[in-house]
Protein backbone atom coordinates (compact mmCIF):
# COMPACT_ATOMS: atom_id res chain seq x y z
CA UNK A 1 0.00 0.00 0.00
CA UNK A 2 1.38 3.39 -1.03
CA UNK A 3 0.77 6.39 1.23
CA UNK A 4 1.90 9.93 0.46
CA UNK A 5 2.02 12.62 3.15
CA UNK A 6 2.05 16.14 1.72
CA UNK A 7 3.63 18.51 4.22
CA UNK A 8 6.11 17.89 7.02
CA UNK A 9 4.81 20.18 9.72
CA UNK A 10 3.32 19.00 13.00
CA UNK A 11 0.35 17.19 11.45
CA UNK A 12 2.26 15.65 8.56
CA UNK A 13 5.17 14.38 10.65
CA UNK A 14 2.90 12.97 13.32
CA UNK A 15 0.76 11.22 10.69
CA UNK A 16 3.75 9.69 8.93
CA UNK A 17 5.40 8.38 12.10
CA UNK A 18 2.18 7.06 13.57
CA UNK A 19 1.24 5.36 10.31
CA UNK A 20 4.64 3.65 10.12
CA UNK A 21 4.01 2.28 13.60
CA UNK A 22 0.40 1.16 13.11
CA UNK A 23 0.46 -0.01 9.47
CA UNK A 24 3.87 -1.61 9.01
CA UNK A 25 3.13 -2.74 5.46
CA UNK A 26 2.61 0.82 4.22
CA UNK A 27 5.19 2.38 1.93
CA UNK A 28 5.23 5.99 3.12
CA UNK A 29 6.65 9.01 1.29
CA UNK A 30 6.72 12.46 2.91
CA UNK A 31 6.88 15.37 0.47
CA UNK A 32 8.00 18.75 1.77
CA UNK A 33 9.41 21.89 0.11
CA UNK A 34 12.51 21.75 2.33
CA UNK A 35 14.52 18.89 3.84
CA UNK A 36 13.79 20.02 7.40
CA UNK A 37 10.98 19.81 9.91
CA UNK A 38 10.30 23.39 10.97
CA UNK A 39 9.02 23.72 14.51
CA UNK A 40 6.73 26.58 13.78
CA UNK A 41 5.98 27.53 17.38
CA UNK A 42 9.71 28.25 17.76
CA UNK A 43 10.07 30.60 14.81
CA UNK A 44 10.07 33.60 17.16
CA UNK A 45 13.18 32.07 18.75
CA UNK A 46 14.72 31.56 15.32
CA UNK A 47 14.17 35.26 14.64
CA UNK A 48 15.73 36.35 17.93
CA UNK A 49 18.64 33.93 17.58
CA UNK A 50 17.82 32.10 20.81
CA UNK A 51 17.05 28.70 19.24
CA UNK A 52 17.11 26.78 15.98
CA UNK A 53 13.63 25.91 14.73
CA UNK A 54 14.68 23.48 11.98
CA UNK A 55 15.62 19.79 12.28
CA UNK A 56 16.48 17.47 9.36
CA UNK A 57 13.56 15.25 8.38
CA UNK A 58 15.88 12.25 8.30
CA UNK A 59 16.39 12.54 12.06
CA UNK A 60 12.67 12.88 12.77
CA UNK A 61 11.11 10.16 10.64
CA UNK A 62 10.85 6.48 11.52
CA UNK A 63 12.98 4.03 9.63
CA UNK A 64 11.49 3.09 6.28
CA UNK A 65 9.76 6.42 5.61
CA UNK A 66 11.05 8.15 2.48
CA UNK A 67 11.43 11.94 2.61
CA UNK A 68 11.33 13.81 -0.69
CA UNK A 69 12.13 17.48 -1.10
CA UNK A 70 9.68 18.85 -3.65
CA UNK A 71 6.67 21.10 -4.10
CA UNK A 72 3.30 19.55 -4.89
CA UNK A 73 1.43 21.08 -7.81
CA UNK A 74 -1.79 19.03 -7.59
CA UNK A 75 -3.24 16.07 -5.72
CA UNK A 76 -6.14 13.86 -6.77
CA UNK A 77 -7.27 10.73 -8.62
CA UNK A 78 -4.65 8.68 -6.81
CA UNK A 79 -1.76 10.83 -8.06
CA UNK A 80 0.41 13.53 -6.51
CA UNK A 81 1.89 15.73 -9.25
CA UNK A 82 5.06 17.66 -8.45
CA UNK A 83 6.15 20.97 -9.91
CA UNK A 84 9.14 19.35 -11.59
CA UNK A 85 6.79 17.36 -13.82
CA UNK A 86 7.12 14.03 -11.99
CA UNK A 87 4.35 12.30 -10.07
CA UNK A 88 3.72 9.67 -7.38
CA UNK A 89 0.83 7.24 -7.23
CA UNK A 90 -0.94 6.66 -3.93
CA UNK A 91 -3.56 4.43 -2.40
CA UNK A 92 -4.08 6.99 0.38
CA UNK A 93 -2.77 10.49 0.95
CA UNK A 94 -2.58 12.88 3.88
CA UNK A 95 -2.89 16.56 3.03
CA UNK A 96 -1.08 18.45 5.79
CA UNK A 97 0.21 21.70 4.31
CA UNK A 98 -0.75 23.84 7.31
CA UNK A 99 -1.56 27.54 7.24
CA UNK A 100 0.33 30.57 6.04
CA UNK A 101 0.65 34.33 6.42
CA UNK A 102 -0.37 37.07 4.03
CA UNK A 103 1.67 40.04 5.20
CA UNK A 104 0.82 43.66 4.70
CA UNK A 105 3.21 45.39 2.27
CA UNK A 106 6.19 46.83 4.11
CA UNK A 107 6.28 44.01 6.70
CA UNK A 108 8.05 40.67 7.08
CA UNK A 109 5.94 37.63 8.07
CA UNK A 110 7.14 35.69 11.12
CA UNK A 111 4.87 32.66 10.67
CA UNK A 112 6.78 31.10 7.78
CA UNK A 113 10.33 29.74 7.63
CA UNK A 114 11.32 32.08 4.81
CA UNK A 115 9.90 35.10 6.62
CA UNK A 116 11.52 34.12 9.92
CA UNK A 117 14.92 33.81 8.25
CA UNK A 118 14.51 37.19 6.58
CA UNK A 119 13.47 38.71 9.91
CA UNK A 120 16.43 37.08 11.72
CA UNK A 121 18.93 38.62 9.32
CA UNK A 122 17.23 42.02 9.46
CA UNK A 123 17.04 41.99 13.26
CA UNK A 124 20.69 41.03 13.64
CA UNK A 125 21.68 43.99 11.47
CA UNK A 126 19.76 46.57 13.50
CA UNK A 127 21.91 48.97 15.53
CA UNK A 128 21.09 49.83 19.14
CA UNK A 129 18.15 52.17 19.76
CA UNK A 130 16.33 50.98 16.62
CA UNK A 131 12.59 50.34 16.76
CA UNK A 132 10.97 46.96 16.04
CA UNK A 133 7.21 46.79 15.55
CA UNK A 134 5.31 43.52 15.82
CA UNK A 135 1.84 43.60 14.25
CA UNK A 136 -0.54 41.07 15.77
CA UNK A 137 -1.89 40.85 19.31
CA UNK A 138 -2.37 37.07 19.41
CA UNK A 139 0.02 34.35 20.55
CA UNK A 140 2.39 34.70 17.59
CA UNK A 141 2.75 38.44 18.08
CA UNK A 142 3.09 38.24 21.85
CA UNK A 143 5.77 35.57 21.73
CA UNK A 144 7.68 37.35 18.97
CA UNK A 145 7.66 40.70 20.76
CA UNK A 146 8.69 39.12 24.08
CA UNK A 147 11.49 37.05 22.52
CA UNK A 148 12.93 39.98 20.58
CA UNK A 149 12.75 42.25 23.62
CA UNK A 150 14.45 39.67 25.80
CA UNK A 151 17.21 38.96 23.30
CA UNK A 152 17.78 42.59 22.25
CA UNK A 153 17.18 44.88 25.25
CA UNK A 154 19.03 47.60 23.31
CA UNK A 155 16.05 47.94 20.95
CA UNK A 156 12.65 49.53 21.38
CA UNK A 157 9.97 46.92 20.76
CA UNK A 158 6.28 47.63 20.14
CA UNK A 159 3.38 45.22 19.73
CA UNK A 160 0.31 46.49 17.90
CA UNK A 161 -3.11 44.84 17.66
CA UNK A 162 -6.78 45.75 18.13
CA UNK A 163 -6.73 43.87 21.46
CA UNK A 164 -3.34 42.60 22.57
CA UNK A 165 -3.78 39.36 24.56
CA UNK A 166 -7.51 39.54 23.94
CA UNK A 167 -7.73 35.74 23.65
CA UNK A 168 -7.42 35.50 27.45
CA UNK A 169 -9.93 36.45 30.14
CA UNK A 170 -9.34 39.27 32.63
CA UNK A 171 -6.63 38.02 35.02
CA UNK A 172 -4.52 36.06 32.50
CA UNK A 173 -4.94 38.98 30.10
CA UNK A 174 -3.44 41.29 32.72
CA UNK A 175 -0.62 38.82 33.41
CA UNK A 176 0.35 38.64 29.75
CA UNK A 177 0.43 42.40 29.38
CA UNK A 178 2.36 42.81 32.64
CA UNK A 179 4.90 40.28 31.35
CA UNK A 180 5.34 42.27 28.16
CA UNK A 181 5.71 45.49 30.11
CA UNK A 182 8.41 43.94 32.31
CA UNK A 183 10.33 43.29 29.11
CA UNK A 184 9.78 46.96 28.21
CA UNK A 185 7.53 46.15 25.25
CA UNK A 186 5.25 49.05 24.33
CA UNK A 187 1.65 47.84 23.93
CA UNK A 188 -0.53 49.62 21.37
CA UNK A 189 -4.18 48.54 21.16
CA UNK A 190 -5.02 49.70 17.67
CA UNK A 191 -5.34 48.42 14.13
CA UNK A 192 -2.74 49.01 11.43
CA UNK A 193 -3.89 50.47 8.14
CA UNK A 194 -0.59 50.88 6.29
CA UNK A 195 3.15 50.38 6.57
CA UNK A 196 5.17 52.43 4.14
CA UNK A 197 8.61 54.02 4.05
CA UNK A 198 9.35 52.91 7.60
CA UNK A 199 6.15 54.43 8.98
CA UNK A 200 3.34 52.45 10.65
CA UNK A 201 -0.05 54.13 10.33
CA UNK A 202 -2.85 53.23 12.73
CA UNK A 203 -6.61 53.15 12.42
CA UNK A 204 -6.86 55.90 15.03
CA UNK A 205 -4.87 58.24 12.76
CA UNK A 206 -1.65 58.00 14.76
CA UNK A 207 1.63 57.03 13.12
CA UNK A 208 5.17 56.19 14.22
CA UNK A 209 8.50 55.26 12.70
CA UNK A 210 9.64 51.64 12.64
CA UNK A 211 13.04 50.33 11.54
CA UNK A 212 11.78 46.73 11.26
CA UNK A 213 8.11 45.76 11.09
CA UNK A 214 7.11 42.14 11.59
CA UNK A 215 3.76 40.64 10.58
CA UNK A 216 2.64 38.15 13.23
CA UNK A 217 -0.82 37.22 11.98
CA UNK A 218 -1.55 33.80 10.53
CA UNK A 219 -4.28 33.90 7.90
CA UNK A 220 -5.36 31.50 5.22
CA UNK A 221 -3.83 28.30 3.91
CA UNK A 222 -1.78 27.31 0.85
CA UNK A 223 -4.02 26.96 -2.20
CA UNK A 224 -3.09 23.34 -2.98
CA UNK A 225 -6.52 21.93 -2.12
CA UNK A 226 -8.36 24.54 -4.18
CA UNK A 227 -5.85 24.26 -7.03
CA UNK A 228 -6.41 20.51 -7.06
CA UNK A 229 -10.17 20.90 -7.46
CA UNK A 230 -11.05 19.77 -3.94
CA UNK A 231 -13.98 21.50 -2.27
CA UNK A 232 -12.76 24.19 0.13
CA UNK A 233 -14.27 26.72 2.52
CA UNK A 234 -13.94 30.50 2.31
CA UNK A 235 -10.42 30.32 3.78
CA UNK A 236 -9.30 27.69 1.31
CA UNK A 237 -9.33 24.79 3.78
CA UNK A 238 -10.31 21.40 2.40
CA UNK A 239 -13.81 20.31 3.41
CA UNK A 240 -13.75 16.97 5.21
CA UNK A 241 -16.25 14.44 6.49
CA UNK A 242 -16.57 13.44 10.14
CA UNK A 243 -13.58 11.12 9.75
CA UNK A 244 -11.31 13.83 8.25
CA UNK A 245 -11.53 12.51 4.68
CA UNK A 246 -11.97 14.91 1.78
CA UNK A 247 -15.63 15.19 0.83
CA UNK A 248 -14.50 14.70 -2.78
CA UNK A 249 -12.11 11.77 -2.40
CA UNK A 250 -12.15 9.33 0.54
CA UNK A 251 -8.56 8.36 -0.23
CA UNK A 252 -7.36 11.81 0.83
CA UNK A 253 -7.26 12.74 4.53
CA UNK A 254 -6.86 16.43 5.37
CA UNK A 255 -5.40 17.24 8.79
CA UNK A 256 -4.15 20.30 10.64
CA UNK A 257 -4.73 23.90 9.70
CA UNK A 258 -5.50 23.10 6.04
CA UNK A 259 -8.57 21.02 7.01
CA UNK A 260 -11.99 22.64 7.44
CA UNK A 261 -12.93 20.84 10.64
CA UNK A 262 -16.03 22.30 12.36
CA UNK A 263 -15.02 24.01 15.61
CA UNK A 264 -11.29 24.06 14.77
CA UNK A 265 -9.23 27.22 14.62
CA UNK A 266 -5.66 27.62 13.46
CA UNK A 267 -3.73 25.89 16.25
CA UNK A 268 -0.79 23.52 16.30
CA UNK A 269 -2.37 21.86 19.35
CA UNK A 270 -4.93 20.25 17.03
CA UNK A 271 -2.34 18.83 14.64
CA UNK A 272 -1.49 15.65 16.53
CA UNK A 273 -5.05 14.73 17.56
CA UNK A 274 -6.29 15.14 13.99
CA UNK A 275 -3.34 13.26 12.50
CA UNK A 276 -3.74 10.47 15.03
CA UNK A 277 -7.46 10.14 14.32
CA UNK A 278 -6.91 10.07 10.56
CA UNK A 279 -4.25 7.37 10.89
CA UNK A 280 -6.46 5.38 13.24
CA UNK A 281 -9.28 5.68 10.71
CA UNK A 282 -7.08 4.33 7.93
CA UNK A 283 -5.93 1.46 10.13
CA UNK A 284 -9.55 0.60 10.94
CA UNK A 285 -10.52 0.67 7.28
CA UNK A 286 -7.65 -1.63 6.37
CA UNK A 287 -8.77 -4.03 9.09
CA UNK A 288 -12.34 -3.96 7.76
CA UNK A 289 -13.69 -2.01 10.73
CA UNK A 290 -15.98 1.02 10.75
CA UNK A 291 -14.26 4.38 11.34
CA UNK A 292 -15.34 6.66 14.20
CA UNK A 293 -16.04 10.41 14.01
CA UNK A 294 -13.43 12.94 15.07
CA UNK A 295 -14.29 15.44 17.81
CA UNK A 296 -12.39 18.65 18.49
CA UNK A 297 -11.23 18.90 22.10
CA UNK A 298 -9.27 21.86 23.39
CA UNK A 299 -7.33 21.87 26.66
CA UNK A 300 -5.60 25.22 27.15
CA UNK A 301 -4.22 28.39 25.64
CA UNK A 302 -0.70 29.47 26.51
CA UNK A 303 1.94 31.97 25.48
CA UNK A 304 5.59 32.26 26.42
CA UNK A 305 7.00 35.60 27.51
CA UNK A 306 10.68 35.19 26.88
CA UNK A 307 12.82 32.34 28.17
CA UNK A 308 11.58 32.13 31.75
CA UNK A 309 7.94 33.09 31.85
CA UNK A 310 4.59 32.12 30.35
CA UNK A 311 0.88 32.39 30.96
CA UNK A 312 -1.54 29.54 30.40
CA UNK A 313 -5.32 29.44 30.75
CA UNK A 314 -7.35 26.25 30.76
CA UNK A 315 -10.28 25.87 28.40
CA UNK A 316 -13.30 23.66 28.06
CA UNK A 317 -13.28 21.15 25.20
CA UNK A 318 -15.20 23.65 23.03
CA UNK A 319 -12.42 26.25 23.53
CA UNK A 320 -14.39 28.51 25.86
CA UNK A 321 -12.25 29.81 28.69
CA UNK A 322 -12.17 28.48 32.24
CA UNK A 323 -11.23 30.73 35.14
CA UNK A 324 -8.23 28.61 36.08
CA UNK A 325 -4.84 29.80 34.83
CA UNK A 326 -1.16 29.35 35.64
CA UNK A 327 2.00 31.40 35.17
CA UNK A 328 5.75 30.90 35.24
CA UNK A 329 7.38 27.52 34.72
CA UNK A 330 4.10 25.61 35.05
CA UNK A 331 2.68 27.63 32.17
CA UNK A 332 5.81 26.91 30.14
CA UNK A 333 5.13 23.19 30.57
CA UNK A 334 1.52 23.65 29.48
CA UNK A 335 2.74 25.57 26.44
CA UNK A 336 5.02 22.65 25.55
CA UNK A 337 2.19 20.15 25.94
CA UNK A 338 -0.23 22.27 23.95
CA UNK A 339 2.16 22.83 21.07
CA UNK A 340 4.59 19.96 20.88
CA UNK A 341 4.06 16.76 22.77
CA UNK A 342 2.17 14.27 24.80
CA UNK A 343 -1.53 13.76 24.59
CA UNK A 344 -2.38 17.27 23.45
CA UNK A 345 0.40 18.35 21.15
CA UNK A 346 2.15 17.43 17.96
CA UNK A 347 5.73 16.57 18.82
CA UNK A 348 7.03 14.07 16.33
CA UNK A 349 9.94 11.65 16.35
CA UNK A 350 10.75 7.99 16.24
CA UNK A 351 8.83 7.44 19.43
CA UNK A 352 5.58 8.89 18.07
* Helical fraction: 25-40%
Mean pLDDT over the full residue set:
93
Structural class: alpha/beta
Tally of alpha and pi helices: 8
Give the tally of β-strands. 23
* Strand order in the sheet with the most strands: 5-2-1-9-19
Shape: globular
The percent range for strand residues is 25-35%
- Distance from first to last alpha carbon: 21 Å
**CA gyration radius, whole angstroms:** 20 Å
Unreliable spans are 341-352
Largest sheet geometry: 5 strands, parallel
Descriptive overview:
- This protein has eight helices and 23 strands.
- By secondary structure, it is of the alpha/beta class.
- The strands form seven sheets. It has a five-stranded parallel sheet, covered by helices on one side.
- The longest helix is centred in the last third of the chain and has 16 residues, at 271-286.
Features:
352 residues, five-stranded parallel sheet, 25% helix
Short recap of the structure:
The chain has 352 residues and is of the alpha/beta class. It contains eight helices and 23 strands. The chain has a five-stranded parallel β-sheet with strand order 5-2-1-9-19, with helices on one face. Strands 10-17-11-12-13 form a five-stranded parallel β-sheet. It has a three-stranded antiparallel β-sheet with strand order 6-7-8.
Amino acid sequence: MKVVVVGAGYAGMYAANRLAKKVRTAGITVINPRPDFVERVRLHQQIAGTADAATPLTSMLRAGITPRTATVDKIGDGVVRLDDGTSLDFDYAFLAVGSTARPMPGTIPVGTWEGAEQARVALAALPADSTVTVIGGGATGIETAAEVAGARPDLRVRIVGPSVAGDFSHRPHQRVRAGLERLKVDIVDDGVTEVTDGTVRLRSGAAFASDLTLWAIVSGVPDLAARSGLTVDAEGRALVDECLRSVDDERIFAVGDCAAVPGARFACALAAPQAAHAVNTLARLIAGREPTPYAVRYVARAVTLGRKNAVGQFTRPDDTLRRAYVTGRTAVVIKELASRGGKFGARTGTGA
